[in-house]
Amino acid sequence: MGSNSNLDPSLLLEIGPDGLLRESPVIAYTEKIIEEEKLQLKKYIEENYSKIRDVERELANLNLELKLTAGSKNAAFEHLRKKIEIQNEKIKAAKAKEEQAKKVWEAAAKVVKDEEAVKQKLCEDLNQLVQESSNSQYKRLEELKRRLEALNPGRASATTAANNMPTSASLAPSTPEVKGEAANVASEGVARTAPNQNQPAAAEVEGRGKRKVLL
């Protein structure tokens, strides 16, 4: 009994009017709080456990998917890797062909340049040959003119023809077509002056006829 006197009166059991023990209000409130905490804890555990189970289930499905697709993915990766290597080889071959084609083009361009230089040299040689030929023809014309003048020095027509004779500058062609024109001029000059060779003989015959008449 002495020990019960030291307890908190609110914690002591009460005896009701019916003679039955009544629970202390403090104890009842405490037990209620504890029960609520238990319910909340149980609910929290159940919710988290459900989430954990969901995560574990998703992880299991993912592992299964990885196992099922790992082989096909590896095969796809290997296939793509081989195709990339093949493309690299094709690119190298194309670059080599490009370099070879570039060298061939440069060689062809050099050949064209050399051929053009040869053509230019031939054109220059041709022009020089035409020039020399024209000069030679002009010299021959001059020689024929001097011979004709020596045969008939008194003819004024010969002097006139000599004055009208073209100079060497006008007879010096720069193209093969001009060479033909110079040849035509030479032939015309010979044709014009050739009759003068027979003029002294005709004059001599005419003089003899006059002498016979006088006799």
From TrEMBL:
Coiled coil in keyword set: yes
Region (Disordered): 154-215
Coiled-coil regions listed in the entry: 45-151
Biased composition (Polar residues): 157-173
Keyword field: Coiled coil
Superkingdom per UniProt: Eukaryota
Descriptive protein name: RAB6-interacting golgin
Naturally occurring in which organism (per UniProt): Opuntia streptacantha (Prickly pear cactus)
